[in-house]
Amino acid sequence: MNETSATAAPHRASGEVLLEASGLHTYYGVSHILHGVDFSIRGGETIGLMGRNGMGKTTLLKTMLGLVRPSEGQVKVRGIDMTHAETHAIARRGIAYVPEGRGIFPNLSVRENLLMAARAGVDGQREWTFDRVIDTFPRLGERLNNGGAQLSGGEQQMLTIGRALMTNPDLLILDEATEGLAPLIAREIWSIIKTIRRSGIATVIVDKNYSAVMALADRSVVLVKGRVVFAGDSNALSENPELMHRFLGV
Amino acid sequence: MDLAFFLIQLLNGLQYGLLLFLVASGLTLIFGIMGIINLAHGSFYMVGAYLAWSLSSLTGSLSAAIALAIPLTVVLGMGLERLLFRHLYQRDHLYQVLLTYGLILVFEELRSLIWGDDVHGVAVPELLNYSIPLTENLSYPVYRLAISTVCLLLAFGLYFLIQRTRLGMMIRAGASNREMVQSLGIDIKLIYTLVFALGIALAAFAGMINAPLSSVFPNMGGGVLIICFVVVVIGGIGSVKGALIASLAIGLAETFGQVLVPEISGMIVYVLMAIVLVWRPQGLFGRA
Asked: How many residue pairs from chains A and B have C-beta atoms closer than 8 A?
């Protein structure tokens, strides 16, 4: 991996509130999943979104991205109400999503997976080009003409992250990016996430490796049964075994 | 069968196959990418033929009629996608079959009201209305060669669009994961509208250019629709390359079948389909 790419100047969206959700209530059919969730992230910030399985983390992300509609509450992107906006319009305001289960396009080659997503960032910058992504993920460079389905799990995850970077986002949302990966590969993915974080892109990280998440995150948000039970400094959570046990079962 | 006669049948088979491709490519794209079973696809072929007839009667030129009719069919396709088809993407195929079967009836009724129930002929453009002599007694119409050339160019253009352009990558990506495409900031609804309109326009264009050869008559879309579904099944759902190869195979099989074994020519393509389905249930180029 090219570590020099991690030494970028403070990011252009630094400090601006990029994504803000307030009072979100979301249902799947009759199941009430989110119960008045508040969430916000600023440019350059890293937030660990944690909680046990089924607590509403992915639903919160999907609701903020317009993939699931809330029954109540508001989602603002860069200060503009986008609660009822289409997903593509939300993404175009500088938000990239790496979903649980990866979401590569198996019928496209690695090169095509990357090129189809390429666009300038909100301010017209193209800091992440095809070459820079390949430089960051050399394994992908070796498999450019392979179909997405022919990649290993780790390579697929790199492709999904690389593809998200091709959109030149200000905020990258990673949902279970290391799930199901061998420890060595997972370590490589964490290293890449660190590089992305250092480049100044804000990140929301959802992962079961809580210690790794809290080591990276400026702030942590914990969901229990669709409610925010903790939102604050990551150290305050990681250094409190009682809270860790009560909220996360560890 | 002497060489000249064989050559004529070969050219006829290729021309018929390429024309089928124009209709079937739209059907396979709409089915494979948007998941819509469009039974009304043949109706757009009919609409194209009737537009070619009525507009060429008005303007006195088939070329002018085609130039006017293409934008009309694109607008028709976009309008129908936005008004009707868009609401069916997430629905079961049964809803799609019901709606599109209803559309066939609506189109036939409208055709009867607007253009009547008579059979009409469309004149071959003057510029192409001659034949190339192959032997002393046999010649081949230039118009058929022109149709084949246009179809081939469109086939290459479509292949280039789907396989070599960013828009094509987005279209193919949309076939595998619609939600993910949206999450990358791409307006999948707009892409679907474009794909649908393209498919409709291709079917209608096939009806337009074939009108001088086939005449224009009620229910002419039905036969084309069935054979195009056979093409889609043989080629593999969603595969433009598969549609091209299957169209050519069916065009040649039907044409030579009618000459060599006329008693069973009607069933040849269905036997071909059955063999392919047993051998490769997903079609020649379909994904398993």
From this structure: 67
